């Protein structure tokens, strides 16, 4: 992959003591205190040679259903047609605000990779525990429509990826190209740091 190839990494930060599953273990998921209702999303444009080439921010509702639209809005706000891939940290940010990566790939005309870092038995039991009625049905529909999750070895570490808009072989090439060291793709790593810094700056 050429060194100038760009990917947009998406990661979030929100306050509170809830343990939010992004596609990983789901024990002890709860909120305490007066947590604000929004999570900060950061989008970091990073080249394959690790050069950071742009940042943008958006918010989505903690426990809501607007994460997919928020990511689409964030991408559009950048105005970056040179971004070739989206790498999203997990599939259920902001306390089960599920990301429809298939819809994102179709709407943005870009491959979208949902990347997570822990083994998981799946989110359906946790969704059924915390939601009911239409709220549960919507989340289950999005989750069940998501592409299958595959393990990928990168730099001796195991990542898990769901890929929409490209095949599994291309997804593996993308992850390895954008993970020069360690086991966390650089666009996601930068986006996570920036989201946390933004959260600290606004004082929430």
From TrEMBL:
Which InterPro entries does the protein's record reference?
Answer: Endo_dU
Superkingdom is Archaea
| Region ranges (Disordered) | 14-35
One of its Pfam families is Endo_dU
**Matches recorded under Gene3D superfamilies:** archaeoglobus fulgidus dsm 4304 superfamily (3.30.2170.10)
Give the UniProt family note: Belongs to the UPF0215 family.
Q: What is this protein called?
A: UPF0215 protein GJR98_01415
Organism field: Haloferax marinisediminis
